[in-house]
Amino acid sequence: NAGVMQNPRHLVRRRGQEARLRCSPMKGHSHVYWYRQLPEEGLKFMVYLQKENIIDESGMPKERFSAEFPKEGPSILRIQQVVRGDSAAYFCASSPARGNYGYTFGSGTRLTVV
Amino acid sequence: DQQVKQNSPSLSVQEGRISILNCDYTNSMFDYFLWYKKYPAEGPTFLISISSIKDKNEDGRFTVFLNKSAKHLSLHIVPSQPGDSAVYFCAASNNNNDMRFGAGTRLTVKP
Lengths: 114, 111
Hints:
The complex is a heterodimer of chains A (114) and B (111). By secondary structure, chain A is mostly beta strands. Chain A has no helices and eleven strands. Chain A is globular and about 35 Å long. Chain B has 111 residues and is mostly beta strands. Helix content of chain B is 0%, strand content 54%. In chain B, strands 2, 4, 5, 9, 10 and 11 form a six-stranded mixed beta sheet that branches. A five-stranded antiparallel beta sheet of chain B has the order 1-3-8-7-6, with no helix packed on it. Chain B starts with a strand and ends with a strand. Classes of the chains: A mainly beta (114), B mainly beta (111).
């Protein structure tokens, strides 16, 4: 399966803990995008990364959230000191290049903060 | 900033009839538009797209119409089938920017 792989599918964290969400893009894709879907809401852009570079993080909350896409390995979305409001579905997508390409999405990670 | 808007959160249609999902955008720099379909507990899947140089693109039962002057696009599904029941997201991008999504419209096709 050469699709976008996200893990874990479900993640439960207590308030104050850290959450790490992983995304392996499709083979041949070097552009990764993270989106968040809050309950009953649409997909909100968070961050766009290319290998080792953050291209656009205009949708990332200023504090507690960070993302990386190292030269080797998956892209990581990291949320420190999680709060209940962080509970959401986090989707990763990838594309072969920047520009007018359709994104391929992963199945998402559902984060629940208790 | 809500650059892509889907003002109807839900739509219910009888099987066999036409489903029309609407989307408006504000950024005149967008030149590529897409529709994604999403089932519960799954990621969005690409459905159909249209470039700003066209006003219509058809793929089987799905047709997307683009009205650039009105900054409006729509997705027509005909005939609608129960398996089409899902959340449909409209998305827009330009060659230098990332894709922006609408809030989605939940389509229910009743048998």
